[in-house]
Design goal:
Blueprint (H helix, E strand, L loop, with lengths): L13 H16 L3 E7 L13 E7 L2 H6 L1 H6 L2 E3 L8 E6 L6 E7 L3 H16 L1 H17 L4 H21 L4 H12 L3 E4 L2 E12 L4 E9 L7 H11 L5 E7 L10 H8 L9 E5 L4 E4 H4 L6
Parallel strand pairs: 2-5, 9-10
Antiparallel strand pairs: 1-2, 3-4, 4-5, 6-7, 7-8, 7-9, 10-11
GO molecular function, one term: zinc ion binding
Protein name: GrpB family protein
Keywords: Metal-binding, Zinc
């Protein structure tokens, strides 16, 4: 049976449906998961959409994601491989009348990850284009009620134009940093006296290079925070100036630098006070270092 193409007005329950499915995906992918996102039209408040929850996951290894295929099948998904997009793993639930779709990319596949995020955020912030897209989709759903190919072909030109415009004004720096940190974050035991990796940090220098580091926790205060490890990596490789930094803990939660890390960051020299620190990745909220160290002693 052909898929029935139905476009409905925005449903405020869609974000909750995403949250419910996100936890199942997080449990299945485990340590391989770097980031997870609600994408597609159901992620845009006010936008009419096919009632299908689109989810994008970034992972450390697609091979490890493939090994989890059986667990996805157990909760109702079809695991369909690349399904037309190189470097992707596509999963759907509900068959022809699907309710959820998952798009898995490796975390270093920034082109695919960023284009989805840019388009989503563009639709969220551009009312005129959002309304135009909604009208187009409703019209196409009426013209092609059982022809998903015709429906998709009909909106392709609009999507390509909007995606190009979205990418032209999208700042992917925080995505790059968040994914870089998450890709090296992995809790592990080094010895009976040392544990590492529960927090990872990524910093960006003035020339847009990224350096990462993980925390090292020891039994007698000889360890270091992830931020200091990333700073050491930067200095070792010739860098000196940090413009942005993000630290990530378990389940993708943001971590603020401790007092010692704030002081070291500030001592990096002129301009360090304007360094941005990521506090909320979902909302891209940041704080400048000078706000965390008012009236700095030096």
């Amino acid at each position: 049976m052909s898929q029935h193409v139905t476009v409905t007005d925005y449903d405020p329950r869609w974000p909750q449906k995403y949250e419910e499915e996100k936890e199942k995906i997080r449990h299945i992918l485990g340590e391989d998961l770097v980031a997870i996102y609600h994408i597609g039209s159901t992620s845009v408040p006010g936008l009419a959409a096919k009632p299908i929850i689109d989810i994008m996951a970034a992972v450390k290894s697609l091979d490890r994601a493939d090994q989890a295929a059986g667990k996805f099948i157990q909760i109702g998904y079809e695991y369909l491989g690349e399904f037309g997009i190189a470097g992707r793993r596509y999963l759907r639930k509900g068959g022809d009348e699907r309710t959820h779709q998952i798009h898995i990319f490796q975390a270093d596949d920034l082109d695919n990850i960023v284009r989805h995020l840019a388009f989503r955020d563009y639709m969220r912030t551009h009312k005129k284009e959002r309304e135009e897209y909604a009208s187009l989709k409703k019209e196409l759903a009426l013209r092609f009620p059982y022809d998903i190919g015709g429906y998709c072909d009909g909106k392709e030109d609009f999507v390509r134009r909007a995606e190009a415009e979205a990418l032209s004004c999208y700042d992917a720096d925080w995505d790059r940093l968040y994914l870089a940190a998450g890709s090296v974050r992995q809790e592990r035991t080094i010895s009976p006296l040392i544990e590492a990796g529960s927090v990872a940090a990524a910093l960006m220098t003035e020339d847009d290079r990224i350096y990462v580091g993980v925390c090292i926790d020891t039994a007698c205060s000889l360890g270091m925070c992830a931020e200091r490890n990333a700073i050491g990596n930067m200095i070792t490789n010739g860098g000196t100036r940090v413009k942005k930094i993000a630290a990530v803990a378990a389940e993708g939660k943001m971590v603020m630098p401790c007092g010692a890390c704030r002081e070291l960051l500030r001592q990096l020299g002129e301009g360090a006070e304007d360094m941005e620190i990521l506090t909320d990745y979902e909302r891209k909220r940041t704080v400048r270092l000078k706000e965390l160290l008012p009236g700095w002693w030096a």
